[in-house]
Structure formats: C-alpha cells, structure tokens
Task: structure prediction
Amino acid sequence: VSTALQQYISFSEPPASAMAAEGFKIDWPPADASGGGGGGGGCCAPGQACDDGACDAPAPKLTKIHIAGWPGCGYFRKAKAALETLSVLFPDKYEIVTHESADREAYREFLFPLRDQMANSKANSHTSSPFVAMGEDFAAAPADCTYLGGCDAALDYARSLFGGPTAAPKPAASVADGYTPGNEYDYDLVVIGGGSGGLAASKEAAKILGDGGKVLVLDYVKPSPKGSKWGLGGTCVNVGCIPKKLMHQSSLIGELINEDARHFGWVSPASAAAAEGEGEAAPPQNVHQWDTMRSEVQSYIKGLNFKYKVSLRDAKVKYVNGLGEFAGEHQMKITTFKGKAKTPKEEIVTFARALVATGGRPTALSCPGGEHAISSDDLFSLDKSPGKTCIIGAGYVALECGGFLTALGCDTTIAVRSVLLRGFDRECCDKIGAFMAAKGTKFIHGATPSNIAPTADGKYEVTFTNGSTDVFDTVMAAAGRTADTAGLNLAAVGVEASPKNGKLQCVDEQTNVPYVYAIGDVLQGLPELTPVAIQAGIMLARRMFGGASEAMDYKNIATAVFTPIEYGAIGLSEEEAIEAYGEANLEVYHSEFVPLEWSLSPERETDTYSGFCKVICDKTANMNVVGMHYLGPNAGEVTQGYGVAMKKGFNFRDLSETVGIHPTTSEVFTTLTVTKSSGASAAAAGC
Result:
C-alpha cells in the first residue's frame, strides 16, 4: 500500500502487485482531539471493519481532512491526489472534503474569512494554495478545525502513515511581517544582490506569486580597488567557485601531462623517436599559456551572465542594474548609472518585503602598503600570469589559489598567521599542507605582512612580522571576507549589523526588522557556500509566499576544498566531535590509500603522500556517524554521494554493509576496519 500511495502521489499508475499485497501493517495515528477520527472501537481491531453484520460496536469515527484550493494550482492538485488516495484505500478511516474555487481570487475570497477565525497564527497568514485543515466542518465552523498546512504538510502527513518520517521538519521561527496579497506597494519583494542565492529566491518567489506577482532584483557590481568588475551572477560565477574550479582543472590537466601521461603510454612523436635512438629528446610539447586559459574562462563566465539575465526574464522577475539602499520603512532608493559618463539617476520604490543577498567582498590588508595587493576579485581576470606570488591568508581561497598557481608554474608563497583552514579537521589540514609543500608551494608560518612597498622595477617588497623580506611580482590578500552591507543604509529601517564584519544576525533568515530578510554570506555564523544560499533562498521564498513553514537546515552540509589534493568533509571535525561527545565516546575509523589513477606514476610519491579518509562515530548512540572526511581525487563528487546519508542519519554498520563500487576511491569508506584506538596502521593493503 505504501508503494501504491507513493506511485499515486507521483501521478503514475501503481503496480497491481502493490495493491494486492497482503500482510502489510500500518501504525494508525490516534484520533485527532479537535475534530479528527482514527481507530475503530468495540470488538473491532483498529483499521478493520466488522463484516458479519452482527456487531453492535459503534462505527469508527472518520478523520475529516479539508483541502481548499483552485484547480489551476499544481500544488493543490498534487496534495488533493495524495489525500484522496487515503479515502480510496481506507474509506472507513478518512473522508476528504474538497473546497474548490474557480481561480486564485475566488479561492482567497473563500479562504481568508475562514482562516482568520482559526487560533493558529500560521493559518491566519496562509495565502497560498492549497490550505489543509482537519475537523468536522471547515466551511461552517473553522474555529473548531486544526490547521495542517499546505502541500508539503499534506504529503508529509500521508507519508507518516506508512512508516515514513513522523517528525515534521523544524518550522521556521518567523515573526509576522504584515504582508498581505494584493498590496499597493510597487513590489511584493525586492532582492538586493544578483548572486546565486538572490537569483534563486527571486525566481522561486515569482513562480509562486504567478502573473500578479511583483519581484525586483537589484544588482550592481562595485569595481574592486584594482578596478575589476563583472556581470550578473555574484561572486561564485564571476570571481569565485566557477573560475577557481576551472583554473584548478587546468592545474590537474598539467599534472596528468607532466606526471602521469608517459607512464600510461602517452608520449609525443619526438619523445618516442628519441626513446628509440632516432634523435635527441625534444623539449616538453605542452607549455601553459595564462592568457589562453584566462580568455576561455572569461568567455564561459560571460555566457553564464547572459543566461542569468534570460532566466530572470523568463521567470518574470524585473532586473535593474543598479544599487539599492533602504530609504525608510518599506522604501528603497535605486541608483542607476547611465551612459559613458555613468551619470547617477535615483528613484524611490516601495516594497512589501526586502531580501538582502549582497554577499561579501575580500577584506583588505591593514598593513602599510596593503592597497598594492590584489584579491580573488582580480586574480581570475589578470591579463598575464601573476608570476612570483605571495598570498596572505590560510583559508580555502588562499590554499585553492595558491595550489593552482604553483601547478601553473608560479613561484608561490602563502603567509599563514595561525593554522591552515581553520574550522576544518586538523589532521586533514596538516596533510593538505604537507602535500602542497611537496608540490612546491612555500609557506611562511606564524607571520603576516608588516609592510608592502613597490620597487623600481614594478615588483613589491614584502616585509613580514617575523623580520624576513622577499620580493614578489604579485601580492594577493585572502585573509577573510567582509559582508557587503555598508552601503545599504540599514539604519533607515533599523536593521542591526555587526560593526566588525557587517554581517546580520538573523533567525531563520529574518532580521530584527520582520519585513527585511537575508540569505547567504551576509548571515552571521553560518556556512558561506553557494548551494547553501540557493537552498536557503528557495525555502525562504516558499515560506514568504507559498505557505511553507520548513526552516533551512544548516547542519551536516557537505563541502569540498579544491586544493591540490582535494578535501571533502561532512559533519564534525575530529576536534569538534571530541568537544561535543568526549574522546572516550568516539570511535574513529581511518585509512590511507593510493588512488588507482596515481599508482603508475613515481612522481606522485604515493608512499609518502597518499589519499586518506576517516569516519567519526558516536559509540554511545549505536555508532552513529557524526563526521566524514576525505582527501583524494574528485573529493566533491565523492563527498556529495554521502551527503544524503549524513542528512538523514546513519551508523557505521549501514556504511560497512554498503557494497562499494570497485575500483573507486569512494569505496574505501565502505571497507574501513582500522580504528585509531587500535593503534594499527591505517595503510590500506591490496587493491
């Protein structure tokens, strides 16, 4: 029956075998005290009806579920189909009462007077279709009914009857912000920031609001101190994840050519002839050209910029290439810059809700001469190779950029104030540092620049706090990021921002001003990751305009760091797990392994620099997995595969009973047997 229900919800025909299945068991929910039924009574077992005609037990009380909506809404049709399945399968248990209106306006005329009589504040603000409640007579006595929710709540209720998750997702702790449909503001939603999160939120909001919705996206790229600028799409697309991963890929291709290719039989004709004594060995056939890579990367990014504009147009979201700042309650000042002279033009618009999605910008160096440093805002569009480079910082931006610059032939030094990749697993970070040093990246530990001075030949002399000096072609600041909120005039509406980094303290993406929301890198203490901003933006839009209530879950989010040996992580680091559970309550499984694709190349030095993985388990809770860490090729792909398991929860037995795919690096997780506590070697044996 469970299979049949899931098939029905998916609008596909249920297999006959599922409908004819015998011996299934359903744990029936108790009767709803406010108007729902539930189990049988008298001599009849729950879920059964007398068929001998002689029983005088009272008939089981029906659970009445009311669903209101309009047929043009796909969410209404989906929830209605799921609930009606319950009444078809169990007619003595469930009665579905449909309140169907002709269109959106008629639906709201029907719903609003009824929902306002209910005690639930979420019901009072519910505007989307469908509206689901339980009780005897929603149309005549809505105050006696219990609010269930919208489409998601209806589906979750149905799933819970068949052994699915019974605990509802955590609802957002939202505060009523005064929004009403059909308001007289210029816009239902104004999004400040055209990055990944802002674009996702705006398009989802427009989809929910439909033809009557009014959504505006404001995006204007303020040039970096070095003059770099870019198009729509935010940091990730233009000066972050996308160009970084492409340049990292360039470095990996170089490794394949220089370290692996000949061991797998790939040689140039000249090299092959020389090997056979027919001539002198030729110089390397492949030399990296920065300008070619840069041109190709920037062309790809410009294509993405155009696609984002098209996607906003298709979603019926208005896009303005302008700066936004608050001008008073529900008021936004928009500044656009027209013509070659970039003459500013100002306009005031009104909005019901605003979403701050401006992201962050690299934090400038504070030492004398810090203005001479470039940042990641500039690196990916440099006309020529940066040459000998000093990178200030030790986070993922510093290590990722330092790693691919070294591989592309740049003499690269990273100045580390304290530790590499603060917040990540120390053991893994130390292995990354050792791997990068072996590949040629230099590290200055425990020091930062105290002065940067230009030289007569166009280079920069850097003096470090440990007293050492060196001369570089390029100095790059990668010592953190600051939220780009300083120019938003937040004080005009009373939004509070951190004086230290400009970030906003929110509760479920809602600021201290209820009608102003925020997502992404401007949020205090939450992961600064593109997929996080996208997911949070979509879920927020559904709560604001779609009647959803589920909060964004920021726990156990998989991530990867694209250093020369890639790093993937989910959950707690070993240090965090020890702090949370105590070292005696943990079991750590680990393994050092040689990725098969590295095994033929002596240059890889796999005896010293191998792949690594570990799984951290809570011994007091059935060996639940609380952290997973991986070092090796394709870390993002490997780690993403375990992301769902970590989110849903699993234990070490589940992992070890999973059959791995051979030969892969990911399968090592499924074959772990050595624990740290055993003291045995973590080096893997065999294939």
